[in-house]
Write a structure and sequence with these properties.
Order of helices and strands: HHEHHEHEHEHEHEEEHHHEEHEEH
Strand order of the largest sheet: 2-8-7-6-5-3-4
Bound molecules: 4'-deoxy-4'-aminopyridoxal-5'-phosphate
Radius of gyration: 21 Å
Structural class: alpha/beta
Strand content: 5-15%
CATH topology of the largest domain: Aspartate Aminotransferase, domain 2
Number of strands: 12
Distance between the termini: 53 Å
Shape: globular
CATH architecture of the largest domain: 3-Layer(aba) Sandwich
CATH class of the largest domain: Alpha Beta
Largest sheet: 7 strands, mixed
Length: 396
């Protein structure tokens, strides 16, 4: 079968960064007792009340083709939620329901890029970003956000990348940002967002803002770049029920953007997924109706474990916690051990049976770091952090 270049180059030819994860999973299947701090999935399951709403919706007949843009009530609820949180006028016509945030990312890039166009994204980055850009024929170009600058991107670096793309003859059309950030936990402050907006205006970029962790903020507040003056017209916002409501498997997310753009995106959705299951959409609607107290309950364990880790790492200097302001991860700076993130993670797995993600999996800017997902119960989590601290101390 002679496949397209687009599909055979989605991973870009390099490692996809998941080697350590796959190795750990293999060891677990062979019966090894491994503490897994690798992926961003809650240690709780979807709340029973949400499942009951899903069940009732299915029994009530929501099993046929659902409206392709999403059911009206859910589009309405998402619009209202965004408007309340960001103060930016949002109607159901700005909202399309997608199969998770990932499908919204794909749709946004499909809407923004033609074959060969450049899309800028920030390094370190969530693993699927470059592949999503390549899957629509775009050219991913990473822009480094320095560890020593709290993993925040700078105006200068973004401007230089957009200028370089234009000079190469493949102008940048889109810029992807993610705050609160996976993997770094950075929450972009207003001045960073203003700098990003200024670059977007200067180079006429569509900003794709991945805000799937918007309910997980431990310091400061979540600001959406769409709320900055003049930005709603050049922004797509990606949202999801996965992280905020522990509904990763239900595959309900959304894309928010200018009304005129959404008609075109709807044509894409009609010709790809043809809608999201009605009963999962009804479940999402019910879940949103549980309100912000429920969302705070889902987020609380991560805030608690972040505090446990801070405490457990006090008084040692082998590893530095780059204090995350949001999301369900910790980035540990392990450069003082002299090991790369890859080597550290491998040694930790083999010698202490703890699996963490090497920073390198998320791009060069996270080299010399490892990412810890705070997704196991408090007691074993705290024990694992202490074990990692002792392991690191023995290396320096
Ligand atoms: N963006 C980021 C930053 C993520 O971490 C994830 C999931 N890990 C997603 C998007 C996609 O999530 P989903 O498709 O489940 O909404």
């Amino acid at each position: 079968m002679r496949l397209s270049n687009t599909i055979t180059t989605i991973t870009g030819g390099g490692s996809d960064g998941w080697d350590l994860f796959i190795k750990a999973r293999k060891m677990i299947s062979q019966g090894h007792d491994i503490t897994e701090l690798t992926i961003g999935e809650h240690d709780i399951k979807t709340d029973t009340r949400i499942l009951e709403a899903m069940h009732a919706a299915a029994l009530g007949g929501a099993t046929g083709y659902a409206m392709v843009p999403g059911i009206d009530a859910l589009r309405h609820a998402v619009a209202q939620r965004l408007e309340e949180r960001t103060g930016t006028a949002t109607t159901p016509d700005n909202v399309l329901i997608t199969a998770g945030g990932q499908a919204a990312l794909f749709a946004a890039f499909r809407a923004a890029l033609d074959e060969g166009d450049t899309a800028l994204y920030i390094n370190p980055y969530y693993a699927t970003y470059p592949g999503t850009i390549r899957s629509v024929g775009g050219r991913p170009q990473a822009v480094v956000a320095e560890a020593d600058n709290g993993f925040l991107p700078s105006y200068e670096a973004l401007d230089a990348a957009a200028t370089a793309a234009a000079a190469r003859g493949a102008p940048a059309k889109a810029l992807l940002i993610n705050s609160p950030n996976n993997p770094t936990g950075a929450v972009y402050p207003r001045d960073t967002l203003a700098a990003i907006a200024a670059v977007a205006v200067k180079h006429d970029l569509i900003v794709i803002s991945d805000e799937v962790y918007d309910t997980q903020v431990w310091e400061g507040e979540h600001l959406s770049i769409r709320a900055l003056e003049g930005m709603a017209e050049r922004c797509f916002v990606v949202g999801s029920m996965s992280k905020s409501h522990a509904m990763t498997g239900s595959r309900v997310g959304w894309l928010v953007g200018p009304e005129a753009a959404m008609g075109h995106v709807l044509n894409l959705l009609t010709n790809t997924n043809y809608g999201v299951a009605g009963f999962t959409q009804e479940a999402a609607l019910f879940a949103l109706g549980l309100g912000s107290a429920f969302e705070a309950d889902i987020a609380a364990p991560f805030q608690r474990r972040r505090a446990l880790a801070q405490k457990a790492l006090e008084g040692q200097n082998a590893i530095r916690l780059s204090k995350p302001s949001g999301a369900m991860y910790l980035m540990l700076d392990i450069r003082a051990t002299g090991l790369s993130g890859d080597a550290f993670a491998d040694k930790l797995l083999m010698e202490r049976a703890i699996a963490v993600m090497p920073g390198e999996s998320f791009g060069s800017a996270a080299a010399g770091h490892v990412r810890i997902a705070m997704t196991i119960p408090d007691a074993p989590f705290e024990a694992a952090i202490k074990e990692i601290a002792a392991f690191s101390a023995a290396l320096v």
